[in-house]
Amino acid sequence: MRGCFSGSISRIALLACLALSASACVSAIPVPDTTDGVWSQSRWPESTVASLSRGRALYVNKCSGCHSLYVPSTIAASRWPAMIEEMTRRANLHPDERDLILRYVITAGRSGPAGAAHSVVSSSGR
Ligand code: HEC
Fold first, then answer.
1. Of all atoms in ligand 1, which is nearest to the CA of residue 92?
2. Percent of the chain at pLDDT exceeding 70
3. Looking at the domain assignment, is residue 54 inside a domain?
C-alpha cells in the first residue's frame, strides 16, 4: 500500500488526503534532510540538500498532473531512469529538471524496494 495510509499519519494529513484523494498526499513524499544530502552527494558530487529540495518541488509540481505521485521508495532505483525519461516527454521537462527529479526520487527512495539502491550504486560498497 503506498500513499496516504502507510506509517503514522496525523489527523490533518489524513483529512488532506481525503480532500485530495485523487493524488498521493504530499506528506508521503519525503522532504530531503542532511543525511539525504550526504548520500546523494556521494553519487552526484554537485548534489546538495537544496538541489534535492528543488527536485522534490519539481516532482510534486510537474508529476502530479496526470496521476498520483508515486512514493519514491515504492519503485526500484534501477527502474527510475527509464520512467523519468519517458515522463520527461509527457511533462515537458528541461534536462536539468529531469536530473533534479531523478536524483531526488532515487535518494528519497533508496531504502526500498529491497536491494533497489544497489542496482544504481557503484562499487563503492555503500
Ligand atoms: C501528461 C501526463 C503525465 C505527466 C505530466 C506525468 N505522467 Fe507519469 N504517467 C502518465 C501515464 C498516462 C502513465 C501510465 C501509462 C504509461 O506508463 O504509459 C504514467 C505512468 C507513470 C509511472 C508508472 C510507470 C510504470 O511502468 O509503472 C511513473 C513512475 C510515472 N508515471 C512517473 C512520472 C513522473 C516522475 C512524472 C514527472 C516527471 C510524471 N510521471 C508525469 C502520464 C503522465
1. 5
2. 71
3. yes
